[in-house]
TrEMBL record:
A molecular-function term among this protein's GO annotations: DNA-binding transcription factor activity
InterPro entries in the cross-refs: Homeodomain-like_sf, HTH_AraC, LacI/GalR-like_sensor, Peripla_BP_I, XylR_PBP1
CDD domains reported for this sequence: PBP1_XylR
Protein name in the entry: Periplasmic binding s and sugar binding domain of LacI family protein
SUPFAM superfamilies, alphabetized: Homeodomain-like, Periplasmic binding protein-like I
Alphabetical list of PANTHER family matching this protein: LACI-RELATED TRANSCRIPTIONAL REPRESSOR, XYLOSE OPERON REGULATORY PROTEIN
Pfam family, one: HTH_18
Stretches assigned to the HTH araC/xylS-type domain: 291-389
Organism: Collimonas arenae
Keywords associated with the record: DNA-binding, Transcription, Transcription regulation
Residue spans crossing the bilayer: none
Amino acid sequence: MKKLPTTHRIALLFNANKIYDRGIITGIGNYLSSTRASWDLFLEEDFRCRLPGIERWHGDGIIADFDDPAVCEALSGSRLPVVAVGGSYQDEADYPQHIPYVATDNFKLIKLAYDHLIEAGLTRFACFSLPEAPVNRWAQERERAFQRLMQRDGMAAEIYRGVSTSAPAWDTAVEQQIAWLHSLPKPIGIIAVSDARARQLLQACLSAGIAVPEQVALIGIDNDPLARTLTRVPLSSVIQGTEEMGRTAAHLLHQMLHGVQLGGSCILVPPIGINVLASSQHEPLSHPHVMQALHFIRQYACQGIKTEQVADYVGVSRSSLESYFRRELGRSVHDEILRFKLDAAKTILEHETRSIAEIAVSCGFTSVQYMHAVFKRELGCTPREYQERAAQASLQAVKQLQS
């Protein structure tokens, strides 16, 4: 009989409620499904609730989120093989000693966002971070990356940390964010250290009537579907290589379980790319009525608004607004509304599995037939064909990363 592989008991110390951690866990699962490794996985929704006593756990190995100082402390005396996962550090002394470490490359995350904003034609930049705290070390590293880029290009580094969000401090936090936004020169590109932080700032912009992306072009980090769902203006975001981090961490632990000594090696994983959506699609404009109209369209296009409603919001006649649009953008108000609805539909088709009818309704198309006609006219394919092409392209991208 063929001998079955030894089954190992492995603890995954991650917060499964966060998109970043879920990506890493997915990568670990992908590694297991593509190899002969046989692991029994132990995972809580939020490991921090079960961290006390982890040093006495009778398992075979651990993969853990070392961005949390409590984890570093709890595992400092572990006799089990441990692979650490977290953010990269400018100072190599900040990495854990004698433990293999897989890191998201914080500098490359910020640089990719910065380069994107430069390509959008922006010349002023700021960073929206988090209050300084041991649990926010990754955010402070992204601040430092932003500072290095600003220093390299001879610009002052405008960084705002704000306050930690909680129910009692929510109103104060929003008021302070709005005050900061008003103090900034416009137009400006802002890099938020996470999608959650970017979503907060986007809401502050909308509350204050600050046009996104005409006055503030905003980009986050994580490519969190929840952040896209909860914002009226779709949020651009840098896509971290979390699944690759998970695969790499699993591969390292697999080696350690078979006697390989890895010591304090460190592997940096670059970002995959950017999901470019409306929040950072800055177009330099000079006419304030066009800026106001685009601000309104980006919030309400998918609710089925018409040109007359846009003109009413701006406070000018329909003919005047059409003239301004033709002169500034070379297209009509209706064309801009349709363009935004088309982009929204494409994004859903690329990332979700909803029916075509549901997508048509959610994106403000009057019927499935009309959305079908728009896709054929503008893209030369049906919505379903577009979805199939996007799925094939995504599969090819994954294969290239794995090869």
